[in-house]
Amino acid sequence: MTAPEWTRALSLRMPATHRGVRIVRHQVRHFARMEGVAQGEIDSLCLVVSELLANVVDHGGGGGAMSEENLITPVEMGLEFELSSGSWRMTVSDQGGGDPGEVSALLKSEEPPDLEDARGRGLFLMRETVDELSARASSDGLGIAIVAVRHFQSPGDNPSA
User: Is 7 exposed, middle or buried (CB count within 10 Å of its CB: 0-12, 13-18, 19+)?
Assistant: First the structure.
């Protein structure tokens, strides 16, 4: 007998700041724990949410702001997170304009990061962690939304069945 499919969802909007990244990461971690996700999968999930949201703050309209006081204009970031019995789907959106086609090309690049550079490893780490990574225009039309999907073995799954 196959375990029934279930889906739980979490939706958050925060100012596009690094403080907001920490708050959202904490909320996602707590949500996943309460839903019984294994710690290793929570670690992967938190890596992806941190990298995607940090990119919003640094490149998607947040201007690298540490807190709301540092924002030049009131820019938000959004997270739509769906957790199913064997996968999760995360959509992170910004309000920083941009071309989804250009971002898609970056997401699909197989070029390894420059190890001499202090930055630039986030997209590489996400590509290695998730099963699907894509970009599109955000639903409010003000920026870009990146969608990440990962499939994993649920604690109740039986691979030998």
Answer: exposed
Q: What is the pTM of this model?
A: 0.87
Query: Would you say 34 and 59 are in contact if contact means Cβ atoms under 8 Å apart?
Result: no
Domain 8-151, architecture per CATH: 2-Layer Sandwich (3.30)
Which residue ranges make up each domain of the chain?
8-151
Q: How far apart are CA 64 and CA 75, in angstroms?
A: 11
Per-residue pLDDT of the chain (161 residues; tens, 9 = 90+): 455 566 899 999 999 999 999 999 999 999 999 999 999 999 999 999 999 999 999 999 999 999 999 999 999 999 999 999 899 999 999 999 999 999 888 888 777 766 676 666 778 888 889 999 999 999 999 999 999 999 998 755 554 54
* CB within 8 Å of 139: residues ≥ 6 apart: 93, 145
> Which stretches within the chain are classed as H helix?
18-34, 39-59, 100-108, 122-129
Phi and psi torsions of 41, nearest 5°:
-70, -35
